[in-house]
Amino acid sequence: MQQVKTETNAIQRVVQQTDEVADHKSNYNRYKLPLEQHLASTWYGSTLKCRENDWIVKLTSIEIAELEEAAESLLNLQQNVASVTTEQFPLPTLGSKLLAFREELINGRGFFILRGLPIQNYDERKAGTIFYGLGCHLGLPRSQNAMGHMLGHVRDLGMKSSDMNVRIYQTNERQTFHTDSSDAVGLLCLKTAKVGGISLVVSASAIFNEMRAQRPDLIELLMQPIATDRRGEVPEGMLPYLLIPVFSFHEGYLTVFYQRQYIDSAQRFENAPRLTPEHVEALDMFDRIANDPKFRLSMKLEPGDLQFVYNHALLHDRTGFEDWDDPTKKRHLLRLWLSLPGDRPLPDVFASRLGTTEIGNRGGIFVCGTIPTIPWTITGDK
Question: Is the pLDDT of residue 20 over 80?
Fold first, then answer.
């Protein structure tokens, strides 16, 4: 219970900012909210859809050659890829571009795609090594599950999200918009589904602005602690659920943390704070805006695409899909969770999920017995 009090006290400091906003309801009192957000990451999907050249970058032949050479060197030396550094994975040309892309994640629109990697020429180990090495130029890879997987496999394992120890990326179900437990998430598309599996992203500050304009009373609820299920991956001494607001405002930054299915499933715990009808109304409104074609941006990832998304300013999603019967053709993506140097400060309550709020060294899932490792095949994943 002491942890609950500590986390709650940290969150209560979130709403001590900016101007007063009156609700349209006559019986609603005035209170303080952050100002409307006008940032590079405050965008509308309907606008960006027509500007693909702004966020899809074609890799050059020189950059591809650099990636291949660096990966082959590591593999030939049989080095531990999980401990690779940027010095051990030199990218003379692409490396400087990736620094600019990191800035685009943190202070820009919050996502980008690198296109053109000839994935059909690589086996899974070489593809994974290229992806991991490139990711190290953006940030520090973090464990993605209790088993310490630093490189994740996103495939339908025939599981169902109704199992409270299953995470939704292990199914073929629609995910809903969410954030991951890291500063940024990267995906390398190896194979696409037969039908569906479309990638979606949405701006958190655009959602915030819309809710602030229409229902500021509901925004207040989303800036208070809400229980989110850990889905069985519980660090020693921690609660089986998190207590982090959907929106936090800290040192001038609006930060989002959200996974609706896990908010709903956290209600299975007797001691978790209850969702009131007003909470459900707020969460439903958040979801409705996120799924509005005006706000969300959809994109079909092609084999060889590398997508990177900034978790503190954007949410991402994936539509449900129908997969191929042939096991060799089934939808398959590799995933990285990254901690970004030079990133924003986060409220103390985020340490309950990220382990620490230390910039450049936070994020991931670590429980008792977690040992960082790279599973090169899908059979190694949970």
Answer: no
